[in-house]
Amino acid ABC transporter substrate-binding protein (Leucobacter chromiiresistens), 308 residues
Amino acid sequence: VVTEDQANAEPAATTGADGAGSPFDLTSANADERLHIDPVPEAVEALEQSGFDPVQEGKLTVAHSAYEAPLGFLAEDDNATLLGIEPDIANLVADGLGLEYAPENVAWADWPLGVESGKYDVVVSNVTVTEERKDLFDFATHRNDVLAFSVAADSEIDSIDGPEDVAGLTVVVGSGTNQEKILLDWFAENERNGLEPGEAVYYDDNAAGQLALVSGRVDAIFGPNPTASYVAAVGGESKVVGTLNGGYPENAQIGVTTAKGNGLIDPVAIVLNSIIEDGTYAEALARWDLEDEAVAESLVNPAGLPRP
């Protein structure tokens, strides 16, 4: 149950150099303001009956890939504490299951093997439900997937809505992501139509990509909308010029992800639907200004993005 103090708490604006002007507290103190709930009896019972054994007894080991506020990132004061909506949601899931939240920061490319092999119980890291991923993983949805194109604030580009808008552009995108697939499909379509295809550019971290954008080395960044909107609002050096669903042209959702058939996903969904119903979920999203990405219900293994 969320306490009144927690429900009314507003994240303090940070004054640190890296987070100057941020509407959020980007320090490790933010973790102390997370919402908490009591164990959800139905979820606890379902977990006991599932036969699932956590990696660490009494704990839910959660893989996150630290990226940028407000999804998942490292606190600016200790560069170790995981903050953002994804850690907040994972913490609530752990609470609801009667387990202790044990976060792990892992590279995006490493989470699939880590979850499949049982090194981590779940991953909560902006993972979109796809039919291909469902071969190896189970999903309980918790957020709509929205992507955005960002350009430098002084760029003459004012709209990116389709393939022709990226013709000839150099675009930063994450390797192995759904946005990469969309972008490469658009480039291929341009080539078929006699237009310049464009070029995908890859960086190891968001800061490097943002620096390339503002310095004029690339034309655009294509990534999660929450991050793009946050960086534009706080830094003022970029602007969002187009958004689309992460499953374009289909609809897609983000899900808490577990190994296929390990019994954990149904208890997770029970917790997620419990916090959706009692309002805790909405309060968690509001802490990071992500109300627009809310789902009405957590679905287990819904139809995902089509296979390539």
